[in-house]
Amino acid sequence: MKKLTLLLICVASLGLASCKKDTIVNGSTPNITVVRDITPSQWILSTNGQTYSADLNINLIDQYHIDNEGTLVYISYNNGASYIQLPFVYNVDAYSYEVYPGGLSIDIQSSDLQNRTPIKPTANVRIKVVLVSTE
């Protein structure tokens, strides 16, 4: 019985000793945050009348970023006092974005099935883009 207990203690000790927590901190490639304002005149209505779009030129977005890294986009209606992450639905309009080399496009589309024109922002909106880098 003593041998069995000793054997179980040895096995448990080896199992616990082999567990190691590795903390990986990405310190060499920081994330980049870009903040831009979109004026009401920058929103362009599509030819079918169902989407408002605004393009932001961000030269830091290249093909490598699109293929290997991440993009987070936030919108603020109160000059940056608070932000809402895209995509989201506000009232009956859906906000989304598309990333491409050299920038991104913010889209506002009607989320109902009535084929109505979405509501265009009437004041400046602030956009915060976080480029999440990888190694």
Low-pLDDT sequence parts? none
Helix content: 10-25%
* N-C termini distance: 53 Å
Q: What is the fold-level CATH name, i.e. the topology? A: Immunoglobulin-like
Indicate the radius of gyration in whole angstroms: 24 Å
CATH class bucket: Mainly Beta
For the biggest β-sheet, the strand order reads: 2-3-8-7-6
Order of helices and strands: HEEEHEEEEEE
Number of domains: 1
The largest sheet, given as strand count, sense and whether it forms a barrel, is:
5 strands, antiparallel
- Summed up, the helix count is 2
Summarize the structure.
With 135 residues, the chain is α+β, with helices and mostly antiparallel strands. Helix content is 16%, strand content 39%. 12% of the residues are buried.
Note the main attributes of this structure:
135 residues; alpha+beta; Immunoglobulin-like; five-stranded antiparallel β-sheet; four-stranded antiparallel β-sheet; 2 helices; 9 strands; elongated
Description of the structure:
With 135 residues, this protein is of the alpha+beta class. It has a single domain, classed as Immunoglobulin-like (Sandwich), CATH 2.60.40. 16% of the residues lie in helices and 39% in strands. It has two helices and nine strands; from the N terminus they run H-E-E-E-H-E-E-E-E-E-E. Strands 2-3-8-7-6 form a five-stranded antiparallel sheet, with no helix packed on it. A four-stranded antiparallel sheet has the order 1-9-4-5. A hairpin with a 5-residue loop joins strand 2 and strand 3. The longest helix is centred in the first third of the chain and has 16 residues, at 2-17. The radius of gyration is 24 Å and the shape is elongated. The mean pLDDT is 85.
